Structures are given as C-alpha cells and as structure tokens.
C-alpha cells in the first residue's frame, strides 16, 4: 500500500470483512478437522498471468485472523508486479487453523484488487506511446473505492477524483438544472473559485461553449472517433480533453490517437474480472 491510503481505514475494513465471514462464530469445518496446535506453510499462488495488487491487504487479513499467534510472512513479489501462472506471491507459516480461516477473505480481496490492476494494465498497454492517460471513475464498489483506485495505480493508470468534494464534474443533469453549459460553469466557479472543474458534453458545440466559459478540462461523452478527432482540432489545446462512455479495449488505441489527453474507463473497477489466485497448503 502507498501513503495515500488511510491505514486505519483499511484495517477497519478488513476487520469488517473478517467478521462477515465468521459472523460472530467460528470456522466450524476448520476447527473440526485441524488440531489446534498444528502448524503449516501456505503459498499464495497465481493461477494465471496478471498484475498483482493488494498483497499488504492480504497480509493484514492473515495477521488479524491469527491474532496473538505467531505468523511468518514472506513476499516474493510486490504490488504492481507482472506475474505468470504458477508464480508464488507470498509464503505464510503459522497455525493451520488461522491460515484456513483467513483463506477466503484473503483471496476475495487479493483476487479482486489484482483483477483491477490487471485490467488497467491492459488498457495502459493498449494506448502506450500515444500520450493518452488511462483514468478510472467513481464507478466503484461501495466502501472499496480507495483500494480499487489503489489497484488502478498498481496497473499503471491514474485516478480521477476520489469523492464529490475533490473536484467538480458538471454532467448533463447539472447543465439541465442550471439552464446551460456556460451557466452551470459560472455557478460552480462562483461557489468554489479555486476548485478544478470538468465539464461533460456530448456535442462539439457544447465543448466549445465550455472552453469559452473557461473550462480547462472537458469530458467528451459517447463520441465516435471522428467526432473526437474534430473536437481535438477545434479545441486546439485550449483545454484538456477526456474521452468517456462506451469505450472498449478494441477501440482504445484509435480513441487515444485522436489526441485526447485522457480515457475515462469505468470498467476498470466496475467490470474487472478477478485474477485467479489460490492459497495452497503445503504437505507437512
């Protein structure tokens, strides 16, 4: 994890996920089949190629489940590393009961975050050399936003705003409510003189209105490649441009080559498949 994450918040979240799994009781299968004093070594192993994110979160789960019991953890890779099927990510030695009880929560978080990082890396690779930056959105799972956006960074992407108060994004409904693009921009600028403002538009005409109003960042929503190219030409560097809406990996490079500065990709967090990672208990 990096310094942008609130470590106490992460710990509280992990404790809640552990409590969800135990539901105030015990792991009845594990306590029935494993002696209390048995010690084992377990390896977290990638079952497929991808990019890893969330190793410290996984470690935290194991340590919190282990409680006062001694546990030894060795990382073989770091977050952001590209791995292949069969690579060992982490080795853990501790009481077998604690390792097995922690297994599912550990993998739920690690597989999900690594899936986000892996998908992000695919998008970043798709636009490599164009100068365009892949950014996420607020389309995240409730309460997991900070971790998912961390995983995006592990995959080489950049973060959009974290919360509604970080920056303004004037969307179509704001424009309708305010009575127009220019008026919406004026109202936000008046209320928050120092805040960064992005304006969402779905026509080139509105993009130019936003530029004239003073917008420095414009989101071009659901525009085809020819429209994007025309918008880049007409805005002519007076504002940064972000393509969004309906983007796919197949057309990512064509979109980036129009000259937009950013591609906003909600799928990084709302549709990322998990990276298949397993916990393998080693025979004693």
Notes on the structure:
With 284 residues, the protein is an alpha/beta fold. It is 43% helix and 19% strand. Helix 9 (225-235) links the parallel strand 9 and strand 10 (240-244). Helix 1 packs across helix 4, helix 6 crosses helix 7 (181-191) and helix 7 packs parallel to helix 8. The longest helix is centred in the middle third of the chain and has 31 residues, at 96-126.
Keywords:
284 residues, alpha/beta, Aldehyde Oxidoreductase, domain 3, TIM Barrel, six-stranded parallel β-sheet, four-stranded antiparallel β-sheet, 11 helices, 12 strands, elongated
Discrete helix count: 11
Determine Rg (CA atoms, Å): 23 Å
CATH hierarchy class name of the largest domain? Alpha Beta
- Total discrete domains: 2
The low-confidence parts are none
Neighbour order of strands in the largest sheet: 6-11-10-9-8-7
What summary fits the major beta sheet? 6 strands, parallel
Q: What general outline do the C-alpha atoms trace?
A: elongated
Kindly estimate the percentage of residues that lie in beta strands according to DSSP.
15-25%
CATH homology superfamily of the largest domain: Aldolase class I
The structure class reads: alpha/beta
Order of helices and strands: HHEEHEEEHEHEHHEHEHEHEHE
Layout: helices, strands, pairs:
Blueprint: H1 7-22, H2 28-33, E1 39-46, E2 50-51, H3 55-66, E3 72-75, E4 82-83, E5 88-95, H4 96-126, E6 133-135, H5 145-154, E7 168-170, H6 172-178, H7 181-191, E8 197-201, H8 204-213, E9 217-221, H9 225-235, E10 240-244, H10 252-256, E11 262-264, H11 267-270, E12 277-281
Parallel strand pairs: 6-11, 7-8, 8-9, 9-10, 10-11
Antiparallel strand pairs: 1-5, 1-12, 2-4, 3-5
Helix pairs in contact: 1-3, 1-4, 3-4, 4-5, 6-7, 7-8, 8-9
